[in-house]
Amino acid sequence: MLTSYAAHFDTPAGYLDFARFGPPSRDAVTATARAMEESARADHTTVDGLMRAEAAARDAAARLAGTDAEHTVLLPNASTGLFHAALGIREGVVLAPRTDFPANHYPWRRAADLGRATPRWLEPTPGSGVTPDLVRAALTDDVVAVSVSAVDFRSGFRADLAALREAIGPDRLLIVDAIQAFGVAEMSWDAADVVVAGGQKWLRAGWATGFAALSDRALESLEPVLTGWTGVDDVGLFDGIEHPPAAHAQRWSITNLSPVTAAAFVAALDLVERHTVAAIEAAIATRIIELTEAVKGHGGLILSPTDPAHRAGILSFTMPDHEPSVVAKALQAEGVTPTVRTDSLRFSPHASTPPEVSERVAAALSSLGN
Fold this sequence. Notes:
Distance between the termini: 31 Å
Radius of gyration: 21 Å
Shape: globular
Low-confidence stretches: none
Mean pLDDT: 96
Number of helices: 12
Helix content: 25-40%
Strand order of the largest sheet: 1-7-6-5-4-2-3
């Protein structure tokens, strides 16, 4: 456990569902309450003052993504960014894994419905993810982009973004959903042309927070189909005519976001920056090792990668001869919160998760034999 980081949270010790939702810190809760209180006492300075949180959040997200504010835009969620990317491709084939989370399917399906990009579905090996070899085997001249998750939501497979970039070459777009990795895994974000992430999971910022980071290649080649009034030049000039899209990433803005959620996002990103992604990642890796031993020690079957190079903060498993719902009840009786699927269970600890959670898991799994 990263003690200095954990001190900012009130999350129960047995909470192991960060891949689904990350309970926010007291810092984020306080920032949210403060912004709401300020809005309730509004005067001529209130709106402009609250809106400063958006710039602060954008700057912090840009730093963590290894880019700058001009290449970064705040978004309410990852899906919005994926739709911007999908509809921005005029034509051509996009490679995307069929096994990915549905949020990574529908943008490409809708783009195809509109006669724009056409998805070609990749079929990763179970327990694995999108690898350079899988992509190379599917590359044809009409492929213009590859869309992947930095970390697979099912297995926790960690994509090698730098190797994927090398595989597809300099002219195709690499579009990355970073929601299961950003802020908790050091990855080659600069290898991607589009990085999108929501803040409600590992970043622990709450819902309606997120961002996208765009490369120069993405800004040049993606058509800004969904640009709204806040994404254009001379945004404060209300002259009744259409303004051109902004030259930078702000062109993906549709309208003003909530300064309340932006304040929470600032607080969450600040915690990550202060404690560092490397330290957070190391603490999570330690918990994953301990949880893996607890599951295997009680007859569980690990579905996630065991190679540290391809492993992130997700541990998926089954208990042979026991339905996931039955295992879940045993875990919940010990105060452990897993993700429960119809065919498996998933643990996703954070840097604030204490080592005692493995003892709770062991006790719960032991009870299945009684």
